[in-house]
Amino acid sequence: MKGTVLGIEGTAWNLSAAIVNEKDVIAEVSDMYRPPIGGIHPREAAQHHAKYASYVVKGVLEEARQKGVDASDIDAISFSQGPGLGACLRTVATAARMLAISLDVPLVGVNHCLAHVEVGRWKTPATDPVTLYVSGANSQVLAYRMGRYRVFGETLDIGLGNAFDKFARSAGLGHPGGPQIEQFAKNASNYIPLPYVVKGMDLSFSGLSTAATAALKDHSMEDVCYSFQETAFAMVVEVTERALAHTEKNEVLLAGGVGANTRLREMLDIMCTERGANFYVPEKRFMGDNGAMIAYLGLLMYDSGNVIDVENSHVNPNFRPDEVDVTWIPRDFEKGRHS
Amino acid sequence: MNLTNGAEAVVRVEGGVFIKERVSKSYRQKELDERIRKERTKAEARIISDARRAGVPTPIIYDIENSTIKMQYIDGIALKHVIDENLSEQIGVLVAELHAAGIVHGDLTTSNLILFNDKIYMIDFGLSFYEGSVEARGVDVHVLFRTFESTHRNHEKLIEAFCRGYRKEFEQADEVLERVKEIEKRGRYA
Fold it and tell me: What Gene3D superfamilies does its record include (chain B) (predicted)?
C-alpha cells in the first residue's frame, strides 16, 4: 500500500481534516462545534463546519508542508459520506469535492463506522477483531466476514451516547452526559433495577434512558448513574461476547466516543480475559470522530481502486457499514475459517 | 458428557437428562447478573412449554432451579445431516405453528432441529422471545434459510419446500416470506 490522502470528517460536532500516508498521520487539524447549551443543533453544526472548513483544510496543508509533504503530493481526497447529520455531511462533501477538483485527484467516499474500525486495526495490534463501536449516534457490533463488514448487533433506537445525553439533559447535568455520569457512578452505593433490553443480538437504549430519568425521583444521582452505566454496558458487552462466540474470532476492538469510559473498558477486558480473547483500545485521539481515520480508510480504498466520481458523490445520512464492498481486505484473509 | 457451550450457558447430559445452566458473568454487576440469568431461565422454560402446546415437539421440562433447567434429552439426529425436501416442508409447518403462537425462535438452524422418534423436535430456545411482528418472524426464517444455503447443496428446493409447509399453516405466511427477501437484500444477520 502506498499513497498520501487528505481526509475530512464532519458527520456531527467535530470538523477535522488530516493527511496520512501508509506509515502514519502526517498532519491533523480539527475544530469542534460547541453548542452554547444543550446538544448538537444540526443546522448550527453545519454552519460551523462551513465557516471553519477552509481553516482546517488550510491548516492541515500548512502543517504537512512543514513536514515536507506538499499539496501536489496528495493522491486522493476522502470524506465521511455517512452516516451522520445530513446538513453536516453535505457541507463536508462540498469541501471535499472542491479540493478533489482543484488538486485534480480522485475522490473517495468513506463510511464513517468502518473508518473507526480500520483506524483501530491500524493503530492497535488487532488484525481481525469483533468491533464494539459505541458513540453518540451509533452503537454497533461489527466483524469482517466474506468481503463485508457484517453488523452482528446494533441499536434498534438511539445510540448509547445519545441515551446518556438525554438522561443528562433531564437530570440537569449538561452535555455531553457520559463523563459526568461516569463521575457520579463512582460514588454509588446501590444498584437499582433498570430495563435490560437485548433482543436476539440487537439493543434498545431509549426505554432505559427514560427509566433512569424516572428513577431520579426516588434515588440518588449517584445510584441512578451507576445503575444506568452497569445496565447499558452489560448489554453491549453481552452482544460483543455473543458475536465473538458466533464468529470464533479472538480479538475485540473498542471504538467510538463512549469507549472513553473506564468502566466499559474494564467490563470488556474481563469478558475478553475469561474467553481468552485479546482486547484492544486505540489511543484517545483515534477513539472519537477524527479526520485521520477518514484519511486512512480513504487511503485503503484509493489503493484498492475504490474511488467515486464527483457526480456520484452524494452523501447518505443512513449509510450502513454492511453496504460497503470491502475492496481493501484480500479475499483469502479468513484462511481456514468458514461458515 | 459436555456438549457445545455457547456464550451464555453450559450444557451437559446426565442420565438421559439435559441440563442447561446459565453461567455467571463476572463483568456484570452481581444483582443484575442474577436477575438476567433467572429471568431468562424462567422465560426459556415457559416458551418451550408454550411451543409444545402450540403443536411443536420440544423437550419436556423436568425442573427449573435459579438459572438451571433440567429437560428431556432429545437423543436424535440433527436435521443438518439428513434434511430433504419432505423434512423441510415439515419444518415449514412447525415454524408456522410456532409463529402463529406468537413465538419467535431466534436461532433457527438445522442444528437446532432434531429428528427423534420420527418427529422433528425444536431445541435451544435460549434466544427465543414472544413477538408477533413481521420483521421478527422474517429474521427467524431468514436465519434458517442461511443455514440451508451454507450447508446444503440443493438449498433452493429446500426453501421452496419450507415455504409450502409454512404457507399451509400460517395466514400471514406470504407477508413474512416477502419480508425475508427484503431482509436478505439488507445483508444483515449473517
Answer: Phosphorylase Kinase, domain 1, Transferase(Phosphotransferase) domain 1
